[in-house]
Amino acid sequence: MIASALVIGGGIAGMSAALVLSGQGVTVDLIDADPEWRTYGAGISVTGTSLRALDDLGLLDEVRRRGHVGSGFKGRSPDGGILFEAPPVPDAAPINCSGGIMRPELHEILSARVKASPVTVRLGTTVAALDDTGDGVDVAFSDGSRGRFDLVIGADGIYSQTRSHLFPDAPAPVFTGQGCWRAIAPRPEGMTGTEMFFGGPVKLGFNPVSPTHMYLFALEHVPDNPRYAAEDMVGRLKDLLAGFGSYVADVRDGLGDQSLVNYRPLEWQLLADPWYKGRVVLVGDAAHATTPHMASGAGMAIEDALVLGRELAAHDSVDAALASFMAHRFERARIVVENSVRIGTIEMTGGDQVEANRMLGGTLAALQKPY
Fold first, then answer.
1. What's the pTM?
2. Which of 28, 108, 149, 177 could pair with 6 in a Cys bridge, judged by C-beta atoms 3.0 to 4.6 Å apart?
3. Rounded CA gap, 153 and 8, in Å?
4. Is residue 334 part of a domain?
5. Beta strand pairing status for 120-123 and 276-277?
6. Is residue 41 predicted with pLDDT exceeding 90?
7. Is residue 222 part of a domain?
């Protein structure tokens, strides 16, 4: 087992890795480029896979308290009529549930746990240079300090500088042709789980994120990859929701600054196996950034951390541990990324929705297997 590790990036993947390794007695330093350690966005949907990972990380009870965990699903037509319904299952295991939580709430849960752990957190700090000497990694930091670590973990997101350092020829993230709108709105009475509207001008869904609020997501086909000024976002989202029935009209009328409306072009990247070189390894979006069609990005990042800790504890050498880590992670990440992108393509081209639903169900069923 290693004695020390540096985690680069304080998002979901990085904080999870820091917690796992620190819990195993490793001396962990975590750095993040943002001096205020902020997070951006509105809500986040979580599948059973993600809930199981959060449970294994010891955070599920807090997610239940501050977010929403349940079961059940409603599919609606654009006018709000119910097309099909899967009723809630009482006392379902986490793997058979779904849920949602405000992204800042999840960040606060993780960061509070990190702050309460032995992990050393350094904000406003980046890596200036990495030198892997074979038996350790010498690191020069942006503040002029230096350190030496048994392992360096790059968890610095889809535009990872660590990835660029390790694999300078790796393909850049790819724009899919879709953009995702997200917002927060008051939760209608009677909403107990995820609801999606099919057949409208955009793919529209809602997921509870607290007892009082829900998270809205809308996927738009935007082949020209536009950008929107902050002051134009509420108006644009209102335009996209026009024509939807049921409670959507009330949501549309209520959109404002308090709704945390944001927009992001959807991009993906899947680094080829291996995700490591020497004693530096990539996890989370730095290795496998996916689109939101499987609602599994957070869970996959947490799984990376859990598996990395497990394999490091099980092997005497770092190289053997990282090779075993890849044997457990690559195929699992591949099906999430590739099938998510495929579903998005079907949506944009008006393809067979039955195929898309089958792919979604089959992938989520495969992810229920142990990681």
1. 0.96
2. 149
3. 6
4. yes
5. unpaired
6. no
7. no
Per DSSP bridges, beta strands 120-123 and 127-132 are: unpaired
224 found inside a domain: no
Pairing outcome for strands 4-8 and 27-32: parallel
User: How far is Cα 219 from Cα 201, in angstroms, rounded to an integer?
Assistant: 9
- Say how many CA atoms lie within 13 Å of 368 toward its Cβ: 14
Residue-level pLDDT at 40: 83
- The pLDDT score that the predictor gives to residue 42 is 85
Mean pLDDT of 250-273: 96
SS3 244: coil
pLDDT tens by residue, 193-251: 999 999 899 999 999 999 999 999 999 999 999 999 999 999 999 999 998 999 999 99
Residue 354, pLDDT score: 86
Query: What is the tens place of the pLDDT at every residue in 133-186?
Result: 999 999 999 999 999 999 999 999 999 999 999 999 999 999 999 999 999 999
Beta strands in 15-157 (DSSP E): 27-32, 43-46, 68-70, 73-76, 82-86, 98-102, 120-123, 127-132, 137-141, 146-149, 151-154
Residues 6 or more apart whose CB falls under 8 angstroms from that of 53 comprise: 298, 299, 302, 303, 306, 371
Q: How far apart are CA 128 and CA 305, in angstroms?
A: 24
C-alpha to C-alpha distance for 209 and 332, rounded to whole angstroms: 27
Contact present, 351 and 39 (Cβ < 8 Å):
no
Would you state the pLDDT for residue 61?
97
Number of domains comprising the chain: 1
- CA distances 331 to 239, 291, 338, 355, Å, are 40, 17, 10, 21
Angle, helices 297-314 vs 318-349, to 10°: value is: 160
**Do 196 and 203 contact (CB within 8 A), yes or no?**
yes
Please tell me the predicted confidence (pLDDT) of residue 240: 97
Look up the CATH number of the domain holding residue 351. 3.50.50.60
Residue 153 lies in domain:
4-173+267-367
